[in-house]
Each structure stands twice: as structure tokens, then as C-alpha cells.
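[step 3/7] fold_predict: job queued, chain A
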Amino acid sequence: MTKDRSQNRAADAAEGQLWPSPDYDAQVERLREAVGREVFIVELVPTGMELAVSMPGQSVVLLDVLPFPQPDPARGLAPHLLLFDDGRGVNLGRIARVSVDRPFSPAPEQILYRDHDACEGLLFAERRLSKRYIAERSRVLLGRLLGKAPPVTALPSVRTKKGISGKGGEGVGG
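[step 4/7] structure written:
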């Protein structure tokens, strides 16, 4: 990654535009170095109404890291796609974590890629639903069902013990 690109990403992060994250390029490089190795993935599976998580605990061989031609932060599509030996290609925006050696609770040095917001804000955060969060989320989902894409800022935030992740009003939290 060039210095200018790194500075631009840092500037975007300072303005609240954390997509992709400032360390995204370094993580993609770690993934490229792991091509040909067995990896474990934690996959985000969006459905019509909720976000499911798939953590099978079985390894797959990482065959390639490919550029994705149409990244879109509103739809959670990152600029890269991972190709696995089981025939699947999965966009990095649909992956919460890629690790080597251990499928569950990997050490930091075993983690090749980690979507911080997905891991901390969605998967492992303590939750308490507020009326405001339920109302905001219901509006977003109803809009999607009716074919009206909400603006990115309309997505509710996630409140954790460490702070707020995302944009919008009061979210889930402890």
C-alpha cells in the first residue's frame, strides 16, 4: 500500500468513514501470503431479516485472493473475494474472521483477517434491545422489503461496553 493511500484511509477513518478499515490492506496482504494453506473462516450469512453466523470449525484451503469488481459498503461487499478449495468464492465483506491453525479462539498471531466491527459490534458484544433500536431496525428492514434502500446513515448503531460502533441513534448495548 502506498503512503498516500494509507494517509487517505486514515483521513477517511478520522471522518467516520471506516470502510474498508485502515488496516484492511495489511490484512489482505496476510491473506495473500496464506494462499495454499488451510484456513478457518467465520462467515456472515445475511438473510432477509437477520444476520446469521457460520463457524463450521472445518478448514478450507485458500486458493486465491481476488479483486472484487463492484465493492459496495451499503451492501457489505468489500474490494476483495476469497476463493476456497470447496468451490466457493466469498467476499471479504461476508467474512468476520480468517485464521490458521485453530478454528475457535485463535491467538492474535493466528488471525489473518478480522472485521473488527462485525466481531466486536455484532458477534461478541453483550446486547440489550431498546425500543429505539427495534424501531430503527424495523424501518430499515421494511424499507428493504418494499424495495427502498435506506441511506447508510439510517442503519442503527451498536452500543457495546467499549463504546458505539456504526452510525445512527442509540443501539444495542450494555
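[step 5/7] annotate
The longest helix spans residues 131-145.
The domain at 3-123 is CATH 2.70.180 (Protein Yojf; Chain: A;).
exit 0
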